[in-house]
Fold:
Amino acid sequence: MDPIIGIDLGTTNSAAAHLGPDGPEIIPNALGGRLTPSVVGVDDAGTVLVGAAAKELQVLRPDRCAALFKRHMGTDRRYELGKKTFTPEELSGLVLRSLKDDAEAFFKRPVTRAVITCPAYFNDRQRKATLAAGRIAGLTVERILNEPTAAAIAYGFHETRTDRTFLVFDLGGGTFDVSVVQVFDGTLEVRASAGETSLGGEDFTRTMAARVLEGLGQSFERAEAVTPLLVSRLVQQCELAKRRLSKDDAAAVRVPDAAGEYGAKAAEVTITRQQLEGWVNPTLARCELPIRRALADTRLARDQIDEVILVGGATRMPVVVRLVADLFGKPPQGRLNPDEVVALGAAVQAGLVGRAGAVDDLVVTDVSPFTLGVEVSKRFGGDFQDGYFDPVIDRNTTIPTSRVKRYSTLHPNQTIISLKVYQGESRRVGENLLLGEFDVKGIPPGPVGQGVDVRFTYDLNGVLEVEATVVATKQKVTHVITKHAQGLNEQQVRAAVRAMETLKSHPREDAENRFLLARAERVFKELPADLRRLLSELLDGFEAALESQEPAAIEANREGLRQFLSRHDPDHEAEGDAEDAE
Ligand code: ADP
Ligand code: MG
Structure:
């Protein structure tokens, strides 16, 4: 049987994993890394770069790179990179394709099937966009799995024989998700999910950069508009310093000049952990509301949570661990690497899809993260007022689920009912998201109150099917919610799949070379003249070797470059900060 992989398609970082004989394992990328930055760039030759190489390019050429595009999945947002335009789905598709290539190199055979995760808070449109990204990458998506559910699976909650309640606290680069998970009779059930789609470690990094600039009497917004290279450089510096501050008490940030270079007079600012914590605390405080909502939805008090699980790279910050410990009165669990947990859980789920026998102990259920319903009219006095939302499936109902509700005609001899399907938490449809609409025709003429049964069936991929049955005639109309005002339609997905085939990208064997070149370009700007000359020679030699396509020459020159960079790249030690959490 073909291998099925699990993929965490993250806002900041993505990872692939598979279920091996000893449990789930991360699949390394072409650079040997366990996480692949969710960054895409287009170099001067019009060739696409993905991952670490694109992240390097981003420092010097932010205009040619895209990041954080997961926040815009399913929207009309377009990205211009070089001469090419991309949708968020295509950019995600490129990240997925790179992970697929890594998995194929790992298994030494084609990999076409995957389980892909998304935040629990993703709406229907965003989930469809995730499915489209998978197809664009040439993957059959077996399941879209909520990230906190995946994390819960990685921790093997289902193996607990006693009934327990867990809370998954996932603070990544761009999103915050909280979920209440219960083990009940050896069954894993997600009872509630809540979250925020724009709260994460990137916000901390930007806050840090803004405070550093403010300290120098500059405004971040203005700097971003006027000196984007300074800002992209500074943000990169702050990202590294932020990570160091998870271990050390203080870290230095060099402030580049307007051109993004470090002149002889470059200011160096020392930031302490205490300062950073003071700056991020107001943002961190926003984590509390979703926690309260998730607990309220399950009618649980904080002290009824048996364990808290940390997920997401930003939970490596001591201040986050402290916050969680304070909120729940006990230290959280962090046995697994918080930025790998989701991919590991997706791999277990992939194993479940692939060879049910091996993990037949595991029953996973999930919840609908939002309320689904239809528009209704209400009668006040003699008048009908439309625009009201009538829930059919309540938020945090366990899925898959199927619910029926009966609606009836308002006017004599009414033969058509127009059904408008919405999702959201507001009483009025205007503030909720319209998912689709269709007409139920053929209602026999008669007095008011002719019934139509409306059945909502919501499956594990978050796809909603609406079926309406005219009570008098048993005639049915079915409508699968796939149409969106925004997002890609079927034709666009097919066009994107074709476009992907013609897109120039470097072969996987070339990944390390591209990464080294991009990194050397960045480092070059930071070096004094004598070292620049040296690096320039090394680069010339390396490029000549690449041109010659002689493996021995390439390896020799590559090694020289590697050694030079590890000695002279001041940002080196913080690269690939993937020490084990154990
Ligand atoms: P996502 O789920 O959004 O793709 P991750 O779970 O990989 O992201 O988390 C990425 C975020 O974690 C980034 O904002 C990064 O700065 C932050 N992060 C990673 N390692 C550390 C660390 N050691 N200390 C503080 N923040 C970290
Ligand atoms: Mg994540």
